[in-house]
Design a protein that fits this description.
Length: 171
């Protein structure tokens, strides 16, 4: 039984991450980063399957994503940090935002770049409110989807347009 549950969990994560298109940046926005490595600081937490989300996004074109429990040695502009909060009045499973802004180059899918006002460092806040448990984080599959979805936002991508093929960035 334990082996069956492990197999089902692994399959759920694989299916969730498999919907990350390699050309996601061209479809849903622009990468905040190009030709650099982004470190996802998950503090070594095991409840949220960020290793699978990181592995899925790392397969995308023009972006390198790694995970660490500290991200020591990475500039703040190349770090995405995982944190939690609990707000039962907030209907969001999670939020992604920044710790301030600065000017930097942003690269577009067509290879062009321009200086824009961009976030210094990104944070993903996971809402741990008990009232959201059944909708947001009751299963490993739900947690894998939320983790991959929010990491996509931290990398600079928007929600998939209405009518788009199935994507982890569906609203």
């Amino acid at each position: 039984m334990r082996r069956l549950v492990s197999l089902l969990v692994a399959a759920t994560i694989a299916v969730t991450v498999a919907v990350l298109p390699a050309e996601a940046a061209g479809a849903f926005g622009t990468w905040r980063f190009k030709a650099t490595t982004i470190c996802v600081n998950d503090h070594g937490w095991t409840r949220w399957p960020f290793p699978a989300a990181v592995a899925g996004w790392d397969k995308a074109v023009d972006v390198k994503v790694v995970r660490s429990s500290t991200c020591a040695g990475f500039p703040a502009s190349q770090v995405v940090t995982l944190t939690t909060y609990s707000d039962p009045t907030d209907i969001a499973c999670a939020k992604t935002g920044s710790d301030g802004y600065n000017w930097e180059y942003v690269y577009f899918a067509d290879g062009t770049r321009k200086a824009v006002w961009t976030p210094k460092a990104m944070k993903i806040w996971m809402n741990m409110a008990w009232s959201l448990y059944s909708r947001c984080h009751a299963t490993t599959g739900q947690r894998a989807h939320v983790a991959a979805h929010e990491l996509g936002h931290a990398l600079g991508l928007a929600h998939a347009p209405a009518g788009s093929p199935a994507s982890v960035l569906g609203a």
